[in-house]
Design goal:
mainly beta; seven-stranded mixed beta sheet
């Protein structure tokens, strides 16, 4: 059974760097599939942040690319998101998901991040 679980600080201050972790369990998926980060701000739809392929290549949303880094550690079955210089506009629920045929397949439950001004 495949499971994804996000974790993070919950509350960060403006201008700080947000770091979130997604633990992937089941079927060694981290070694074969790309993973993505997606967020949903209050009252808004889902926003794609970026993805990382199993061999490490990354791609980011143009609107977030200058502030975003996604990495993976297969030994820990872990995908990490870093978002630099956060503002209250980055307040959202952040999700990690596995990609299959470039569509999200398995999702984590999400983690709430609030950026204080």
């Amino acid at each position: 059974q495949v499971q994804l679980q996000e974790s993070g600080p919950g509350l960060v201050n403006t201008s700080q760097t947000l770091s979130l972790t997604c633990i992937v369990s089941g079927e060694s998926m981290i070694n074969y599939f790309p993973f993505t980060w997606i967020r949903q701000s209050p009252g808004k739809g889902l926003e794609w942040i970026g993805y990382i392929e199993w061999y490490g290549r990354t791609s980011y949303s143009p609107s977030l690319e200058s502030r975003t880094s996604i990495s993976r550690d297969a030994s820990k079955s872990q995908i990490t998101l870093q978002l630099r210089s956060v503002t209250p506009e980055d307040t959202a629920v952040y999700f990690c998901a596995s990609l299959q045929n470039w569509s999200p397949l398995y999702w984590g439950p999400g983690t709430q991040v609030t950026v204080s001004s």
